[in-house]
Design a protein that fits this description.
Helices cover 59% and strands 9% of the residues. By secondary structure, it is of the alpha/beta class. α1 crosses α3, α6 packs parallel to α7 and α13 runs parallel beside α15. The protein binds adenosine-5'-diphosphate and magnesium ion. The site of adenosine-5'-diphosphate has 16 residues, from α7 and α14.
């Protein structure tokens, strides 16, 4: 076999082909790894630090294993460890490894991106692309004020609304803005669901090690300057998690660290919450976001069009804005559907073609509620596979793709917890589901076929 350095270079080259040019975070992560040894059946990868290791394990393990197997032409497992005071023997330098793309990325502010990734933030959500209107002006005003002066003005901040109305966007925009203003700030973004899962994992992995088991978990959250927790409803009502959450909350609150919480309902609607906690939440400021009116929906789509330089007329935008009234997520989905249709068919949309693109279901019935079982059935019909095979463990391509598409659509359409989806899909781990969802979201951006499949299945789901 080639030297370990050559081998790793080949693997990285292959991955670069696989990834879209904007997956810079992954590339910069890989720049901080090297191969220690390659044995008969394993590649032993060393990471610069725990952060790199964790991220690679969590999000990129499968892709790496597949690529390694492909290059080595045999099944190899990937072992990942963190360096212990040891310098790389044969390290592939970053330039050496990823060519011009990498340099470009570094110039374009990989540092901020790394910070954002470390904080668990997506650069996609900013105040620049958030449209303010009657329905959200208080929430917007509070969010921008907090982003400018974290910990000083309003604390805690509690934002609530129905699904798809912009809570996650605002919350992440706060984090991104703070990192941009003051890169040294320790911003932590998490969701109620992730908080719960991580706590469970910490408790499990610490079994038998006594009371220090959850220390890492605690430090991660309690040492933040800005703590952003999305969809806190997942935490409330689960005894252990709720308890842990309040300790975190109190510790940060006492230290006058900024806390921003979002939820699908106001604090007073949490039946299981004690009075002292409700009043804590309310001691700061509470704001809601209402569904957008026609004018606002149109404004959101126009902003989207202008930012994407899409060739879509105001007339068509107003048509979509009039038809899709439920929430912004659905509104964006319909817009994307129309745009894809126009590109695929090579036509400039008018009202008729738009109506066609949006499909009968959306035009006439509006979107109805769909559950994960219906999604599974539709995916199975679409790909001609059996539900039992999707739930089962076999890993050939004909099953893996439908399986991941099912994961993606279940998350996107119903926003069910990863754990629920994993349980439903044959008892899979929540991280497997996260990976599947991630994989398909990436693929939709690159592969027209996948994108079209997803759109078709969605139409079928809503039409049936
Ligand atoms: P929630 O967290 O309340 O369910 P999200 O923040 O995920 O909603 O919003 C759903 C989608 O709609 C996201 O893509 C988001 O960028 C977009 N969106 C929501 N509100 C606005 C807004 N006021 N301006 C621009 N985009 C918005
Ligand atoms: Mg959200």
């Amino acid at each position: 076999m080639q030297s370990t350095k050559e081998f790793w270079k080949a693997v990285l080259g292959e991955i670069e082909l696989e990834l879209s040019p904007n997956s810079m975070v992954f590339k910069s992560l890989l720049g901080r790894t090297w191969v220690d040894t390659i044995t008969e059946d394993a590649v032993n990868l060393i990471c610069e630090d725990e952060f790199v290791k964790k991220n690679i394990e969590k999000r990129h393990h499968d892709l790496l294993t597949q690529t390694i197997t492909k290059i080595a032409k045999k099944q190899l497992t990937l072992n990942i460890t963190v360096k212990r005071n040891q310098e790389p023997k044969e390290r592939v330098s970053q330039e050496d490894m990823l060519g011009p793309l990498f340099q470009q990325a570094r110039d374009a502010g990989v540092l901020l991106k790394e910070k954002q990734a470390k904080s668990n933030l997506s650069p996609r959500f900013t105040f620049d692309n958030y449209v303010m209107g009657k329905n959200n002006n208080l929430a917007y005003a509070i969010a921008t004020a907090v982003a400018e002066r974290p910990g000083e003005l309003y604390n805690p901040v509690f934002l609530y609304s129905g699904v798809g109305l912009g809570k996650t966007h605002l919350l992440q925009a706060i984090g991104n803005q703070i990192l941009k203003n003051k890169p040294g700030t320790r911003v932590v973004y998490t969701t109620g669901e992730a908080f719960t899962n991580e706590l469970i994992e910490a408790i499990q992995s610490g079994k038998g090690k006594g009371r220090y088991a959850t220390n890492d978990f605690r430090n991660k959250f309690r040492k933040s300057d800005v703590f952003l927790i999305d969809d806190v409803q997942f935490v409330i009502g689960r005894e252990t998690t709720q308890e842990e959450f309040f300790h975190t909350f109190n510790a940060l609150y006492m230290d006058q660290k900024q806390i921003v919480i979002t939820s699908d309902r106001p604090p007073k609607d949490f039946a299981t919450l004690e009075e002292r906690v409700t009043s804590r939440f309310a001691s700061g400021i509470i704001a809601d976001i209402q569904p957008p009116d026609m004018e606002m929906r149109s404004a959101i789509l126009r902003t989207k069009r202008d930012q994407g330089h899409d060739n879509i007329s105001n007339e068509v935008i107003d048509f979509i804005a009039e038809k899709i009234t439920s929430n912004v997520r659905e509104l964006e989905g319909a817009y994307l559907q129309a745009l894809t249709y126009s590109k695929a068919k090579g036509v400039v949309l008018d009202l008729q073609t738009t109506a066609l693109a949006l499909g009968q279901s959306i035009r006439e019935k509006g979107l109805r509620n769909v559950n994960i079982n219906e999604i599974l059935k539709t995916v199975c019909i679409y790909y001609s596979v059996k539900a039992a095979d999707i739930k089962g463990g076999r890993r050939m391509k004909e099953l893996v793709v439908p399986r991941q598409v099912a994961m993606y659509l279940m998350k996107e359409i119903t926003n069910s917890p990863y754990m629920t989806i994993g349980g439903f899909l044959g008892g899979r781990d929540h991280t497997t589901i996260m990976h599947g969802v991630d994989k398909i979201s990436q693929e939709i951006k690159k592969e027209d076929k996948t994108k079209q499949d997803v759109i078709n299945i969605k139409q079928l789901v809503y039409a049936s």
